[in-house]
Amino acid sequence: MTEDLVGKVILVTGATDGIGKAAATEFARRGATLTIVGRNKEKTARVLAELKQASDNPNLDLLICDLSRMADIKRAAEEFKTKHDRLDVLVNNAGATFKALVKGPDGLELTFALNHLAYFQLTTSLLDLIRKTPGARVVSTSSSMQARGKLDLEKTPASLEGSGPNAYATSKLANILFTKELQRRLSGTTATANCFEPGMVRTQFGGFGSDQGLLLNVVYALAKPFSSTPEQGADSLIWLATSPEAASLKGEYVSKRRPATPQRQALDPKLAADLWTLSEKLCAEAVARAA
Question: Which pTM does this prediction carry?
Answer without folding.
Answer: 0.92
